[in-house]
Design goal:
Number of helices: 3
Strand order of the largest sheet: 1-2
Strand content: under 5%
Shape: rod-shaped
Number of domains: 2
Radius of gyration: 55 Å
Structural class: mainly alpha
Number of strands: 2
Helix content: over 70%
């Protein structure tokens, strides 16, 4: 049984790596969320100080701009990490689907192999039985053939002997009666069959 279809079975290390990367990404995202909340709190605090007219307005404005830039950078990093997380999740689902297909296909092929193996064993058993029966029949036929050949040889020899006796010792007038004699296997003797028709001349 030949199988042409080829499936890519995911390596165990690849699957473990994907899962670890997924866990790390989730943890990092939570940390980034906390940092983002802290930055937002700092920005609100700076805005309140500006509104209240606190001293160092220029410094506060610089801090505000810096915090705003950091916040935007954090948000960009979070968005990128979320995108990578989605891609990793898709890869995991694809690998799981591929693994399920390969497992199902392997099971189906294994069942087919088992079924054909059972059929092959039955065919081989039947062939062996028929071959044994054929050998027995051939041996019986050969024995019967040899027996028939031996019987024919014995009958031919007996016929020749009878003809020789008839030629040598039986008068011409009595040869027909001698030739009508038949050998009785049960009685182990030559017998004259019932007389039918006229006596040959």
């Amino acid at each position: 049984l030949s199988i042409n279809r080829t499936f890519h079975l995911p390596a165990e290390d690849d699957t473990v790596s994907l899962e670890n990367e997924h866990i790390i990404a989730e943890s990092t995202i939570e940390q980034e969320k906390v940092k983002t909340e802290e930055l937002e709190h700092q920005i609100r605090s700076l805005e309140e100080r500006l509104v209240q007219g606190g001293g160092g307005g220029k410094e506060l404005l610089n801090n505000l701009n810096e915090s705003q830039m950091m916040l935007e950078q954090r948000q960009t990093e979070i968005a990128e990490r979320k995108q990578r997380e989605v891609e990793m999740q898709q890869r995991i689902e694809l690998e799981e689907e591929t693994t399920a297909i390969v497992t199902s296909t392997f099971t189906t092929l294994q069942q087919e192999v088992d079924h054909k193996t059972q059929r092959l064993k039955k065919c081989l058993g039947k062939y062996a039985s028929l071959r044994e029966e054929m050998v027995e029949l051939r041996e019986a036929h050969d024995a019967e053939r040899r027996e028939q050949e031996a019987l024919q040889a014995a009958l031919i020899a007996e016929l020749r002997r009878r003809l020789l006796l008839a030629d040598s010792f039986v008068p011409h007038a009595g040869r027909a009666a001698v030739l009508r004699l038949r050998y009785n296997d049960d009685a182990d003797a030559w017998e004259m069959p019932p007389h039918c028709g006229a006596e040959p001349l």
